[in-house]
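Example 528.
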Amino acid sequence: MLATLACIGALLRGSAVPAPTRVHQQRARVSASASPPVRDCLVVGSGVSGSVLAHYLHSSGADVLLTEARDVVGGNIISRTDGEFTWEEGPNSFQPTPTVMRTAYELGIADDLVFADPSLPPWVYFRGELYALPKNLPGDLINFNLLSWPGKIRAGLGAVGLLLQPPPEKEENIREFVTRHLGEETFLRIIDPFVSGVYAGDPNKLSMRAALKKIFRLQTLGFNGALVPGALVRFEEIAQEKKDNPPAPEWPTYKAGELGSFRKGLQTMPNAVAAELGDERVALGHKLRAVSRESDGTYTATFQTANGERVVRAKTVVSTAPAHAIADVLAEVVPEAKRLHDIYYPPVAAVTVAYPKEDFKNPDLPGFGSLNPRTEGVRTLGTIWSSSLFPGRAPPGYNLLLNYIGGSRDPQIAELTTEEIIAEVHKGCQQVLLKPNAPQPKVLGCRVWPTAIPQYEFGHLELLEELEQGEARAPGFYLGGNYRTGVAFGDCVQFGFDQAERVKAYLEETAASAGVAGAIVAPAATSP
Ligand SMILES: Cc1cc2nc3c(=O)[nH]c(=O)nc-3n(C[C@H](O)[C@H](O)[C@H](O)COP(=O)(O)OP(=O)(O)OC[C@H]3O[C@@H](n4cnc5c(N)ncnc54)[C@H](O)[C@@H]3O)c2cc1C
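Predicted structure in complex with flavin-adenine dinucleotide:
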């Protein structure tokens, strides 16, 4: 079974390299005459999805405007530095993919990449002890005591297809799927905390085929519906995909199992996009309030800004704003977008604290973090050992910890005061990591995300199908972001790349049918 987990990790990391395509700026320019000018693409939301999309459009010659309701780019990526501490207040790291590496290279931030030592394991807190998840298989399994021997045997047999019940007629949630394949013990002690760590979600409500679709698919690949045979087939597929689309030699390289970030944190990437686009193509403090489709197929968007309303016209519009924030506005063009209100985003607090090393039971913290199963009475979902993960995150003598607390099964977190949240986090650190009587921490950040991560619950895929049908009736208008293409940083970067290709193809197509030479209007100096 743990081999399965290792396979699963590698599968989640592995992805095909998209075929590079570019539309170069040498194309004939089409002058923008009307006022306001008609942009090639209006991108709504400057999180990683919107930023990366804007980069790929801009670098291929499109006239793009990246708009953002807040006064900074990055969405829920917020990286902070104060003195010798550097910390994250949203996501903490990414699993490298060829597209993430390519994007870093193109933005000139490849030298800022940092990677965690892949041998650092995640730990699970269980019955008062921390257990490292095995990294070296099968050797580490002998001493892996988080699972009982019956639990290990059940998981192992299920993973290869013995003891495996056939799938039920109805859709399975994550708990049902994992329990059927690997047994209840593996679910409770490993997968449940993992799901809390990734989604801050409830495995009883998350749809397996929507939330963990790469793992769900494994059962369809092997010869007997089991995960290990499916994983072996998938590895072959990945190897073939890599062969067909090898990464360019100039892109940064990474090792399997590494987690990545940038020296000064993840916000380096959206910041680099904003610097590349320049002030004239990034409009901060612009909140989309209304959008309509004109008879000529272009779109008119109205933004609320500090200086009043601003109208922007564009041939294409891509929304990357969170579902709940944008449903009503998008519904003016795609009525099905009203359904976006049905996607649940639970609250999560990200709390970064530092303690002197001598206050830890193990001052070295040899891992990338610890997960707390919901059975163990620790309110914190998981703790990233930030100073063990990446260099330069804390001064010598301190360990820096990023704690996530709240989620679908603890939405009450949003009702606590900052002091109460910090007290809960400190209590959790005392239970899991610290010596008794460790002093209060140095608190670097406590940010509550009232609507943190979209939950891919039952019905999610059907909802996305409805959106797709609605989109088809509004050519050039796209609904995107992490509720659609996956919540991981790497998924959002991949969305940015793929969506740029879709927008470019649409612009090419419409220009061709209108008989215009050159599809993409080269970037022109236009005021924000
Ligand atoms: C606490 C937390 C921890 C996480 N940890 C990890 C992790 O460690 N690794 C990982 O891979 N993933 C992690 N994730 C998930 C990942 O960070 C997100 O899925 C990803 O950053 C989402 O990017 P996005 O661009 O799709 O959306 P967002 O970041 O939400 O960006 C959308 C943007 O749209 C803007 N907007 C909203 N309404 C409007 C409007 N009307 N007009 C204009 N703009 C608007 C918003 O202000 C926002 O800037 C985490 C997420 C959270 C919340």
